[in-house]
Task: inverse folding
């Protein structure tokens, strides 16, 4: 069978594996129809009569917006796409315009910003309908679609009244899915609604970031307009950073968003299409990978060693989840050259000396920068695994050895034993959130005690909304917090990790500055939207995205750590169940891969520390169960007494099993 056939088969196969139904479906934020309608009037200015005719299923009746009046409609949560409306017979001098916003802070006749950040919050302007107004149904030109909004303001911009009704938006994200709610995975923590909500908000956020390849943002639209008709890759759909903006492929963001895709929709093709464009744009000769995917009129540049590393790590992630080694082979020559580029940046100190200093927005990513080096170490370990899968054993051996040597240098030069944290480089006293989180997550630490000290040290940055990152002034960065969250679980500080979800994700999901559905790109120490104000975003709070895939780290962390289910070889041919329950009593969930349904359900009897795990795993696989706690014990499997004193049971074949253990 030709490869393209296999892939088609492979991806179509995925959509059959829908997660079981249950109370968790009530948390699913994806709309049940691709045509969505406003559910409430948020605000009116001036005189609007029969405004309720603009809501819900009232498709055949009209409201009247008097001259120079406006009305703001609420879609109930984040949506994105192409608006249609029906106009009655109107005066030839009547005029109408549309404006969109995610945050209610920017409700009014002018949209929030998506093209260029301007301190006046007014770059994008409004979309004027043709003049004179047509009669009958009118639909926005597709290039003017709005990728992310919750509120739509309809303004009569002359002194004439306008008769209008039948407002709807055709959703353009997830163009390849008929039923947006047909998730292949689920997560449910009974009585812990915030955790379940965090999981589903992340899943929906990444759906809003999965867009047609020809609907990327044009970064050079003139003031007072916006255009989302840039072609940003070769194949559709494609995974981008955010729904409203940048609508561009960003590899760092994918390091969080792709695991979210895996556990919720198993929709990996958009990620592969993103990686494809990044490799195709490798700089000839040097092997440097671009900072972001193709951005018309803006040369993304070869300016970020950290994002270069994220792209390489992304190849391993995609392979681990999909098993698609054929695709890895198509980029292998460029991939190897790109690993070589990073190796060539290693100087006599044994650490990588950063050349491309751009990163997620943080400052100070120069010299022997800790996060860039931790990412490089992860590149070496994942490259080793990929090379072994391709039988490239000699280069695998060199990469593995280089990883070991580099890890030693990382500890020798960057570990600050007095602080119990890694420094950002050997000449600073700054202990970064990103570098320390990566160090635990990517196993740069030498022992568990060290990881626990770092985990504790990181809480020194916390306020009531989460970690105030030391590497960028006045910022809480949910992207980085997503890595920190995983690091606390790896350090077995489960309650600390759950507390981080409650603070940072709890804030994003409840603040009335945002959309209470999808997740914010970032915010300031006091929770305002002035994210990165002094760092490129020009004090334009209207520019901040409210649906950013990089902020969805809680989704995969809840599946991989709290539920405890991970794949340890492609598609879960081998797997592991190692719950991190903290104070929780019961959790269930699972995901689908090309091998079938992987389900786990566990509950804890706190009085005697018993944990009971129910597994439902595809036949033909095998895996390991690890009972939580340093002295966990396994008591029985499928009713047979076992008494495994190290709490670890290996080589469990696929199928349905009940494992009982004691957590200590
Ligand atoms: C329209 O929506 C209202 C309120 O949700 C409902 O009572 C009514 O039955 C709906 N009408 C139609 C025709 O679906
Ligand atoms: C309502 O709008 C839809 C397009 O969204 C259109 O197909 C339909 O004909 C309109 N209905 C009326 C009564 O105008
Ligand atoms: C439209 O506006 C023009 C200029 O203000 C005016 O001369 C004309 O009478 C108006 N037409 C209608 C139908 O109101
Ligand atoms: C959010 O809530 C606060 C406190 O209740 C209130 O002062 C503020 O006006 C609200 N903001 C928005 C945008 O609704
Ligand atoms: C995008 O839309 C604008 C405005 O309609 C048009 O001028 C431009 O040619 C379009 N670009 C592409 C790539 O289709
Ligand atoms: C590898 O990179 C070169 C540019 O250096 C590019 O022309 C080529 O298309 C890339 N190959 C793939 C498979 O992306
Ligand atoms: C070391 O890190 C600090 C903090 O990030 C940064 O300000 C400084 O420029 C870095 N020094 C070197 C030599 O890269
Ligand atoms: C690697 O070698 C094994 C054993 O010889 C073989 O089964 C497998 O097909 C090879 N894989 C690749 C990608 O060449
Ligand atoms: C291994 O590391 C050394 C020292 O940094 C470097 O010169 C060499 O190119 C690396 N090898 C590979 C295959 O990356
Ligand atoms: C972490 O690295 C150590 C060597 O420093 C190794 O023994 C251990 O297996 C690694 N842990 C994981 C989870 O890869
Ligand atoms: C763990 O690693 C730290 C940092 O290198 C070291 O100081 C400490 O002695 C180690 N602890 C143990 C128990 O090996
Ligand atoms: C733990 O307590 C539960 C509820 O009381 C009981 O059903 C279970 O048998 C106990 N398990 C052990 C190992 O004692």
Result:
């Amino acid at each position: 069978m030709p490869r393209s056939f296999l892939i088609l088969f492979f991806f179509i196969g995925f959509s059959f594996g829908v997660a079981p139904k249950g109370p968790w479906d009530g948390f699913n934020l994806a709309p049940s129809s691709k045509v969505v309608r406003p559910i409430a009037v948020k605000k009116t200015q001036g005189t609007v009569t029969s405004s309720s005719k603009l809501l819900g299923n009232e498709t055949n009746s009209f409201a009247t917006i008097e001259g120079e009046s406006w009305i703001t409609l609420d879609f109930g949560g984040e949506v994105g796409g192409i608006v249609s409306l029906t106009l009655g017979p109107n005066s030839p001098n009547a005029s109408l315009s549309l404006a969109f916003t995610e945050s209610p802070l920017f409700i009014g006749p002018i949209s929030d910003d998506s093209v260029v950040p301007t301190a006046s919050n007014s770059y994008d302007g409004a979309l004027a309908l043709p003049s004179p107004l047509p009669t009958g149904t009118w639909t926005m030109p597709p290039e003017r679609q709005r990728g992310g909004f919750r509120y739509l303001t309809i303004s009569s911009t002359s002194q004439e009244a306008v008769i209008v009704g039948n407002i709807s938006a055709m959703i353009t994200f997830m163009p390849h899915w008929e039923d947006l709610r047909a998730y292949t995975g689920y997560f449910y923590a009974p009585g812990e609604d915030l955790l379940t909500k965090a999981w589903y908000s992340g899943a929906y956020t990444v759906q809003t970031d999965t867009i047609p390849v020809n609907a990327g943002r044009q970064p050079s639209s003139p003031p007072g307009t916006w255009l989302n008709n840039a072609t940003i890759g070769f194949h559709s759909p494609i995974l981008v950073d955010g729904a409203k903006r940048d609508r561009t492929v960003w590899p760092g963001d994918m390091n969080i968003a792709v695991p979210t895709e895996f556990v919720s929709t198993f929709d990996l093709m958009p990620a592969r299409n993103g990686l494809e464009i990044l490799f195709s744009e490798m700089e000839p000769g040097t092997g440097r990978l671009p900072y972001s995917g193709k951005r018309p009129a803006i040369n993304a540049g070869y300016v970020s060693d950290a994002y270069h590393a994220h792209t390489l790590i992304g190849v391993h992630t995609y392979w681990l989840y999909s098993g698609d080694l054929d695709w890895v082979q198509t980029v292998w020559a460029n991939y190897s050259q790109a690993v070589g580029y990073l190796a060539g940046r290693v100087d006599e100190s044994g650490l990588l000396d950063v050349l491309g200093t751009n990163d997620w927005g943080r400052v100070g990513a120069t010299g022997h920068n800790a996060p860039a080096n931790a990412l490089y170490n992860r590149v070496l370990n994942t490259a080793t695994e990929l090379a072994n899968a391709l039988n490239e054993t000699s280069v695998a051996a060199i990469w593995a050895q280089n990883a070991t040597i580099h890890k030693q240098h990382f500890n020798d030069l960057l570990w600050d034993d007095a602080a119990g944290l890694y420094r950002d480089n050997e000449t600073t006293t700054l202990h970064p959130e990103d570098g320390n989180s990566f160090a635990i997550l990517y196993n740069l630490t030498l022992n568990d005690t060290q990881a626990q000290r770092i985990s504790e040290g990181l809480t020194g940055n916390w306020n009531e909304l989460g970690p105030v990152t030391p590497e960028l002034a006045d910022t809480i960065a949910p992207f980085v917090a997503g890595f920190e969250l995983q690091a606390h679980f790896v350090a077995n500080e489960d309650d600390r990790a759950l507390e981080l979800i409650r603070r940072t994700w709890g804030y994003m999901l409840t603040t009335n500055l945002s959309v209470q559905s999808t997740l914010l790109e970032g915010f300031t120490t006091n929770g305002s939207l002035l994210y990165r104000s002094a760092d490129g975003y020009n004090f334009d709070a209207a520019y901040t995205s409210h649906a950013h895939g990089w902020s969805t780290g809680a989704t995969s962390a809840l599946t991989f750590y709290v539920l405890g289910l991970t794949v340890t070889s492609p598609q879960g041919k081998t797997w592991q169940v190692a719950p991190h329950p903290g104070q929780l009593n019961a959790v269930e969930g699972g995901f689908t891969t090309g091998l079938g349904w992987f389900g786990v359900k566990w509950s804890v009897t706190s009085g005697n520390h018993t944990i009971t795990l129910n597994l439902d795993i595809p036949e033909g696989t095998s895996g390991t169960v690890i009972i939580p706690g340093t002295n966990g014990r396994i008591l029985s499997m499928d009713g047979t007494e076992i008494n495994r004193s190290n709490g670890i049971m290996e080589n469990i074949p696929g199928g349905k099993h009940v494992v009982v253990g004691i957590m200590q």
Summary: The chain has three domains: 35-171, 186-560, 564-662. The radius of gyration is 25 Å. The CA atoms of residues 57 and 574 lie 49 Å apart. Residues 393-414 form the longest helix (22 residues).
